[in-house]
Amino acid sequence: xxxxxxxxxxxxxxxxxxxxxxxxxxxxxxxxxxxxxxxxxxxxxxxxxxxxxxxxxxxxxxxxxxxxxxxxxxxxxxxxxxxxxxxxxxxxxxxxxxxxxxxxxxxxxxxxxxxxxxxxxxxxxxxxxxxxxxxxxxxxxxxxxxxxxxxxxxxxxxxxxxxxxxxxxxxxxxxxxxxxxxxxxxxxxxxxxxxxxxxxxxxxxxxxxxxxxxxxxxxxxxxxxxxxxxxxxxxxxxxxxxxxxxxxxxxxxxxxxxxxxxxxxxxxxxxxxxxxxxxxxxxxxxxxxxxxxxxxxxxxxxxxxxxxxxxxxxxxxxxxxxxxxxxxxxxxxxxxxxxxxxxxxxxxxxxxxxxxxxxxxxxxxxxxxxxxxxxxxxxxxxxxxxxxxxxxxxxxxxxxxxxxxxxxxxxxxxxxxxxxxxxxxxxxxxxxxxxxxxxxxxxxxxxxxxxxxxxxxxxxxxxxxxxxxxxxxxxxxxxxxxxxxxxxxxxxxxxxxxxxxxxxxxxxxxxxxxxxxxxxxxxxxxxxxxxxxxxxxxxxxxxxxxxxxxxxxxxxxxxxxxxxxxxxxxxxxxxxxxxxxxxxxxxxxxxxxxxxxxxxxxxxxxxxxxxxxxxxxxxxxxxxxxxxxxxxxxxxxxxxxxxxxxxxxxxxxxxxxxxxxxxxxxxxxxxxxxxxxxxxxxxxxxxxxxxxxxxxxxxxxxxxxxxxxxxxxxxxxxxxxxxxxxxxxxxxxxxxxxxxxxxxxxxxxxxxxxxxxxxxxxxxxxxxxxxxxxxxxxxxxxxx
Length: 784
Hints:
- The chain is α/β, with parallel strands linked by helices and 784 residues long.
- The strands form 7 sheets. The chain has a 9-stranded mixed beta sheet, sandwiched between helices. It has a 5-stranded antiparallel beta sheet with strand order 2-1-19-18-17, sandwiched between helices.
- Helix content is 28%, strand content 22%.
């Protein structure tokens, strides 16, 4: 190794600082390959804390896809503008709520059945449901081919004449023509095309701009598509060969006049995509002409009707048939790969509209219903709903906010979802297609990273999948907001640099869990015979809301984590804290997410932590063998063997605390129902998990007099059962301390046996938030 010595104190420090700054701004390809998680974390930390980000905001999280272990995070809980990363949530919701095979149906009807001569004495009605697919295939230029399915449906029914009108009914989709919280500027360009129940060519027309005959002459303007309803105001001037071609088209929202500004060189042509006002009218007008071209006489006019208007819509209709969209998996891919806003909005609104019932308040838009459906989807999958603040789905709204933590959690859920393959296939591939086709070429991330991009003026985002150089799949979410990039760099460059760093990582995360927690004590992972799983009741798997979770890998993991802190005093009896996790999780992720080991070490409690693997990444509260008669005592015997091998005395299992989050309530309740086991338990802590088990929890407290702590939230689903439990306690005249989680203090915990606290934190934050687990450990005592 070459050594370099610096002379002169001040010069030496300036040079060292310059080298450090250079390393912090270096291209990932110039950094040494990280061969351990620690080295990887150092590199990522250097990248996101470089001086050029002093005025910017980062939100970053990386996890190992297989274990769920957190590899790196930096302000992962910070609310950030996601831009088009919002589309990840829409794609996940659509595949979950509708399924990959689902097709949108567009009904086609007439107001009277055709007579023997093929005449319809009335109107033809096309009822849009938001199908975004009425666009030309790649390479197709014949505009009229778009209407072939509709023309075929009419002619196959023998219709030769329609005496009434051709009506495009866009009222089923009850949504305004713009997404919530879009800006006025958005409505003037191709990114903000109008949202409508019936659409055409992504509601965009192509404006051709050709030079005039000589410099100074007006340019020649022409719309490639007919019946757009646009009037052209030409303000484009021709300039000499090689001159600047700069064209801008502006349309005041609500007007039909397109004002076109700029210059075009004599040797140049330009094409500009422009939004079309009132897409339903465009569709109706073009369909009417398509029918005339096919020899179907139409006596009436073309009418486009959009929500909330219903004037002119006939009530009596005779079905001719329906036109089916492409499968939902294709619709999701088609908006995710190119990051197409309108198609996202249409799918999102369609999912929302499907939830409308007669009880839905009037005026509630499809978009609002879709946001509610998305929040319900997140809650069902155990994700922090409080991290989502969405107004719309495409990400054009600057009011949309989320966190890297939630986005990463969504990716984890979808990696185990029945539609996992469809979701992954919808993501752009670095250097190959979609919005990543030109990015990360010539790096280990090329053809490797699959991720959704997101870009607004002060927003850059990238979230998805990457396989490290060691072959380990990683999930990541990168948000960078308010970044004013220096010359020669961009926000996209910064995100790509992080992704390349992950792709070059030559170590593995799954061998470092014990090492990760080594500063706090000794962690061992053991497969124990008395662990909850495998269990006969789940060998064949489990179905939840139509989604099947097979026995392998969800119910075959017998892992138990046992942690002994460095501060454990061997001359004193140690408490045994058995913690049960909730839905869709695994032991490594639980340890990292809820900071159980850090909080135990910080408490100074003479205690050992035991975390058994429950249903692995499944929406299931079943406690497996721990619900069997004698199951918990057999489990304790196995744990004692592990503790003896670690040099911990056998008294450790004599003082037991049960703690659990969310779905972890069920194995706790089952244990308390076992008389031989419940007598051993001194305390029970329920973290936003009081969904049931009330009789078991209250019965144990009455029989043993132990401390019972219940922390619940307003919208986590535990409030109602908590209220029932409080009523039972009052009927029995049991003293109960009630209060706010925010006001939690040691005095209240030490002097009360039954404690119910309302928390304002999100569902997943009640364990680590305010270091609640630590505080409960510090105040734990002999309750007998």
